[in-house]
């Protein structure tokens, strides 16, 4: 069903949301005060751009607020986002989403909490980014991670390095390994292009491979594929802002040795009062000599989360050059992404993209249970339920399903059982499907599983 959607804010989050939702056939209007951002939207997306303030009733009426199904406010200002959503509530918009950075609005006891403001979803980018970092820190070899079927099915991304046992192997050759454990290679990202592979495709050094498996089988699958993950014991965090603090506090609870590097002295003193087992270092994240004295060369993991993409990239590269094992980098500018993997950056995370993914999951509630997108890939992973449709009631083999090119079913969750499918696997109503697909195939997939 097509929705009428208003998005306030044409930055990276708003742009990403507008792009994804427009591809699915929804009617999108994007509002922003910045003329250049509006021109960018107008040039590249099939949506209605509108220059003006999302906190203006006049502008909202011009955008068609009275007939809107979903209202999303994702500007850089918490106040504008909240005022815009309050106006949307007064106009009777049924679903309202706001991006909020300040912790003051996130406490249930706050007079301006999510419930009291009548919001359906509040996204805090720092919290979302911190949660993603903690997940990826636990599996040292993985560069990407997404959970489905309530956490029972996991999609993992791995970078294939030179000398890996996977270099040059075909997917047909991996079938012998599949007799031992259930897993499926659902995508290969090579030079920025996403390949939904067939059995003849070969894996090469430099590729990123995406694998779907059962959560409990991850250690065995990593062993079979030549990866050796372990939880970190010594971590350096560059940047003591909100994200750095949240990650450090969670790692403290896991008994990990944490060193938090922050250049601002007053912030260091504040962090020292809040964190009890973290070593706070009043240093520049690019001061290699001082950091070497503190032992950054022996770090299992570097997490760079300052507000500067340049500092995050350079500090991580310096640390890895001196011997640190893995680097997770916060990136705000998406145009940097293609450059990072060749430089040796293991994981790049965009708080804006992560926030947009959470909003997309909320928007698509219903038959689509969740969605994930990944930096450097033009594909998405959908979790979608097979409907009560006559052709599915009698049982339909995957071989007989007119499945679009550029898409693959990676796993099926059925009544507590996880199935890694083959051509003969039969689909039934109520099956929970995990599908990896190019953006261009998304609308076909939704139509395929329409009621």
Give an overview of the whole structure.
- This protein is an alpha/beta fold and 451 residues long.
- It has four domains: 120 residues, NAD(P)-binding Rossmann-like Domain (Rossmann fold), CATH 3.40.50.720; 96 residues, Alpha-Beta Plaits, CATH 3.30.70.1450; 116 residues, NAD(P)-binding Rossmann-like Domain (Rossmann fold, 3-Layer(aba) Sandwich), CATH 3.40.50; 95 residues, 2-Layer Sandwich (Alpha-Beta Plaits).
- It is built from 15 helices and 24 strands.
- Strands 3-2-1-4-5-6 form a six-stranded parallel sheet, sandwiched between helices.
- A hairpin with a 4-residue loop joins strand 7 and strand 8.
- Helix 5 packs across helix 8 and helix 5 crosses helix 13.
- It is globular, with a radius of gyration of 23 Å.
- The N and C termini lie close together (11 Å).
- The model has no long low-confidence stretch (mean pLDDT 86).
How are the elements arranged and paired?
Layout: E1 4-8, H1 12-23, E2 27-32, H2 35-44, E3 48-51, H3 57-63, E4 70-73, H4 78-90, E5 95-99, E6 121-123, H5 125-138, E7 142-148, E8 153-159, H6 175-178, E9 183-190, E10 193-195, E11 208-214, H7 218-225, E12 234-238, H8 242-253, E13 257-262, H9 265-274, E14 279-282, H10 288-293, E15 301-304, H11 309-321, E16 326-330, H12 337-343, E17 347-349, H13 351-363, E18 368-373, E19 379-385, H14 390-393, E20 396-397, E21 407-414, E22 417-419, E23 426-427, E24 432-438, H15 442-448
Parallel strand pairs: 1-2, 1-4, 2-3, 4-5, 5-6, 12-13, 12-15, 13-14, 15-16, 16-17
Antiparallel strand pairs: 7-8, 8-11, 9-10, 9-11, 18-19, 19-24, 20-23, 21-22, 21-24
């Amino acid at each position: 069903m097509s929705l009428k959607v208003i998005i306030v804010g044409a930055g990276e989050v708003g742009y990403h949301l507008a792009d994804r939702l427009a591809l699915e056939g929804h009617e999108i209007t994007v509002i922003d005060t910045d003329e250049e951002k509006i021109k960018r939207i107008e040039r590249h997306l099939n949506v209605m751009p509108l220059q003006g303030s999302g906190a203006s009733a006049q502008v909202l009426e011009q955008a068609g607020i009275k007939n809107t199904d979903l209202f999303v406010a994702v500007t850089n200002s918490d106040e504008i986002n909240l005022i815009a959503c309050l106006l949307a509530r007064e106009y009777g918009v049924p679903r309202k989403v706001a991006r909020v950075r300040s912790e003051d609005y996130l406490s249930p006891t706050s007079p301006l909490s999510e419930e009291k403001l009548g919001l359906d979803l509040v996204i805090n980018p720092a919290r979302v980014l911190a949660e993603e970092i903690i997940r990826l820190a636990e599996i040292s070899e993985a560069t990407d991670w997404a959970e489905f079927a309530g956490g029972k099915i996991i999609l993992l991304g791995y970078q294939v390095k030179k000398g890996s046992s996977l270099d040059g192997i075909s997917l047909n050759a991996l079938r012998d390994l599949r007799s031992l454990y259930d897993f499926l290679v659902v995508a290969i990202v090579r030079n920025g292009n996403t390949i939904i592979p067939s059995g003849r495709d070969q894996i090469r050094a430099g590729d990123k491979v995406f694998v779907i498996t059962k959560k409990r089988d991850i250690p065995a699958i990593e062993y079979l594929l030549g990866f050796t993950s372990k939880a970190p014991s010594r971590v350096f965090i560059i940047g003591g802002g909100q994200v750095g603090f949240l990650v450090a506090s969670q790692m403290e609870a896991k008994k990990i040795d944490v060193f938090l590097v922050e250049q601002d002295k007053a912030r260091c003193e504040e962090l020292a009062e809040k964190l009890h087992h973290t070593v706070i270092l009043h240093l520049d994240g690019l001061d290699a000599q001082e950091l070497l004295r503190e032992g950054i060369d022996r770090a299992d993991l570097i997490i760079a989360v300052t507000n500067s993409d340049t500092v995050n990239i350079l500090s991580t590269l310096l640390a890895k050059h001196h011997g640190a094992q893995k680097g997770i980098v916060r990136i705000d500018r998406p145009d940097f992404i293609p450059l990072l993997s060749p430089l040796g950056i293991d994981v790049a995370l965009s708080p804006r993209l992560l926030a947009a993914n959470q909003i997309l999951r909320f928007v698509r509630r219903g038959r689509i249970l969740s969605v994930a997108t990944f930096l450097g890939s033009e594909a998405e992973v959908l979790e979608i339920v097979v409907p009560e449709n006559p052709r599915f009631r009698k049982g339909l083999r995957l071989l007989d399903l007119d499945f679009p090119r550029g898409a693959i079913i990676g796993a099926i969750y059925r009544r507590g059982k996880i199935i890694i499918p083959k051509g003969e696997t039969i689909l039934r109503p109520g099956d929970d499907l995990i599908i990896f697909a190019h953006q261009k195939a998304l609308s076909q997939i939704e139509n395929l599983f329409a009621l």
